[in-house]
Amino acid sequence: MSAIEPATPTSPASAVAGGAAGAEAKPDWPLGGTRPEARPPGEPRRVGYLYILPAFLILAGLILYPLGHAVYLSLWHWDGLTTGTWAGLENYADVVSDPALRSSFAHALVLLAFYALLPVAIGLLIAGLVARAQVRGLAFFRTVIFLPQVIAMVVVAVMWRMIYEPENGALNELLRAVGLGSLTQSWLGDFDLALPSVGGIATWVYYGLAMVLLTAGVQKIPQSLYDAARVDGAGPVREFFAVTLPGLRGEIAVALTLTTIFALRNFDLVYITTKGGPGDATSVPAFEVYDRAFQTGQVGSAAAIGISLAVVIFLISVLINRVAERGAR
């Protein structure tokens, strides 16, 4: 009977070498063979640019080229038919120095209160009520209020022009029916009332948009925050400013941005209701662009007004979003 030979001890160095040899023996790729070489990191990006090239060309054709052409036209005195003369920055200087243009931009800023501030304030009020108590039929309620947003602005303007009629308009007839005939006015024909009357139409149209955005934002605020505020004894006002308002910063920024753009590019409402009148009491920059380009043959001036208006809209939109971002921090 042979003796059992003792196992030979393995040194750590030989174990490491054996493990390395085993690792080298295994294939580098699961299916055998060697791992394929990695592509240069820049190649996929170049291929990606080819994918977005068609979209960029469409963007350039529909937006960038017209914008660049408008900038080019703004540097000329041109009536749209004859040969133009070089104006340089003179058309842009007129935007600042011309009293009619200054007043049109001032009117646009006044309309901001009716297009943006009032609708958002009404939307916040409704959102606060929704957050404070459960409202039955909220979906139907939101749909009814949002309906003016669905109707074309041309239809809205014609309808309200009939309501504002001084002789047999619905508003004056209602005032007479309740014994307030002394308050009847020529709403769109009065120098002092025309601009607020147009602004009132805008408030009626856009407060539904603000309400839908803000009530949707309220529903994403955790109910636990409201419960904690009520446990701390917060009343409706404190609860609104401590919970609802901070939770709606993003929605408020979106609503203000959209309604500000609508206010500053407003044309159809003014054109159909007042045509900028009486006098120039309701003239706005977009109406001045139309009037100068198609009525008085000042295409270069119209282009300069349009570019200036686009810059103002961009700056105000950036300002609104910057303020919202700082508030979120």
From TrEMBL:
Tell where it localizes. Answer: Cell membrane
Read off the PROSITE patterns from this record. ABC_TM1
Q: Which UniProt keywords apply?
A: Cell membrane, Membrane, Transmembrane, Transmembrane helix, Transport
User: What positions does the domain ABC transmembrane type-1 occupy?
Assistant: 105-320
Residues that span the membrane, as ranges:
49-68, 105-131, 143-163, 193-219, 240-264, 299-320
Q: Cellular component terms, GO, for this chain's entry?
A: plasma membrane
Residue ranges, compositional bias (Low complexity): 1-24
* Source organism superkingdom: Bacteria
Q: Which Pfam families match?
A: BPD_transp_1
Residue stretches in coiled coil: none
Sequence segments annotated as region (Disordered): 1-40
Q: What family is this?
A: Belongs to the binding-protein-dependent transport system permease family.
Name the chain's protein.
Answer: Raffinose/stachyose/melibiose transport system permease protein
